Amino acid sequence: MGTSGAGHQLPMACGLGDLHGLSSPLSFARIANPLIVEEPWFWGCGQTNLSCKMVKGKLVEAGKWPWQVSILFMGMYICSGSVVHHLWVLTAAHCLERSLDASKYSVIVGAQHLPAKGTQLPLAHLVTHENFKNLISDDIALLKLRDPILWSPLVQPICLPTTKLMPAIGASCWAIVWGRPSVKVAPKSPYSLQEVSVKIIKSEICNQQYQFLFLKGQKKFIGKDMLCASSEWGADSCQVNSGSSLVCQVNKTWVQMGVESWSFSCKKHHFPNIYTSTSHFTHWIKKQITDVQFINRAHPAFLSPVLHTGYILLVPLGSLWLL
């Protein structure tokens, strides 16, 4: 990884040398068809496998964010989501406002660009939070796949936090989004998987900036079930990114701290994005995905000292793996 002028750690980028010296037994799978690879290609949640491949004469990254999926409604891209289990995808509840008929939705896994030839998986069931009322609170949902995912170097699950694991104010994390090169391009331009560097900010700052949206007598807009993050640099974070994952690195493991819920306006970049806090909904997630466990986790540097005994909820293959 490189370092930006601001001192931020950058994601690895493709280079000519990346096509050579691929380490680990996964080297062959990285350049073969990744979606026909079955077990034991499961490594544990929150692990990336960045490599580069030649596509139409150009080097492209693959496997950087292997949990990220695109959600389709009647075959059209509408939202993003993240793989948290071999049968479950996490997203925002408002992404399902069009219909609660699971047969109308599907997800694409293992893709770097849209439209893509990635594996399209049908859904069996939709679970939206029971308190979601088409507003911004409780904006979380789970999609149950009809068939289990076959893990590959390009398809791996993300880790989830328990209630005690939260990012500290000022922590630098990443929003993983499906974006276009420019908001001015033609509507049919392809989407590509991109990352946005974001910084966690205080809810009080969010409330101050969004106070013009307060209802009469309302004292705050941002609830305990939300996280605020401001974009630092990277892709255009105001594109169609509902359901995108907000991830932070904890001891070399990526943990999804939030699900992108909404942002105010693409033309007002000084307004922070609002994310559903995954740690706030740990118990709700466990209620839906019953075969999960909790594992003690060492305190990472980016967390607040009061959370020194934080835990991580790992949800791959229906069980937790100690990394």
UniProtKB/TrEMBL annotation:
Keywords (A to Z) from UniProt: Disulfide bond
Keyword Transferase on entry: no
Annotated GO MF terms: serine-type endopeptidase activity
Highest taxon, organism lineage: Eukaryota
Pfam families: Trypsin (PF00089)
Role description: Tryptase is the major neutral protease present in mast cells and is secreted upon the coupled activation-degranulation response of this cell type.
Descriptive protein name: tryptase
Source taxonomy: Eukaryota, Metazoa, Chordata, Craniata, Vertebrata
